[in-house]
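hey so u asked for the seq, here:
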Amino acid sequence: MLRGLYDWTMSLAARKSAEWWLAFIAFVESSVFLVPADVLYLPMALSKPERAYRYALVATVASVLGGVAGWFIGHYAYE
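ran it, structure tokens below
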């Protein structure tokens, strides 16, 4: 089971759309589901260290937006 998850994560990190996946996972993680974006961030940053700060910025912005969305979900879904 873990090997399949590892292979899936590494395949996401190798794609050209890896930044979008990182943003999506960070957004979802901070709003509704607890899957840490670090699992995808680390292989991306290790493969291209010169872009590590960019990846961190993408994950941070998406995480903050996900937190705002999570707040709205909790505020308007809870009566």
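Residues 52-77 form the longest helix (26 residues). Residues 40 and 71 are 24 Å apart (CA to CA).
lmk if thats what u needed
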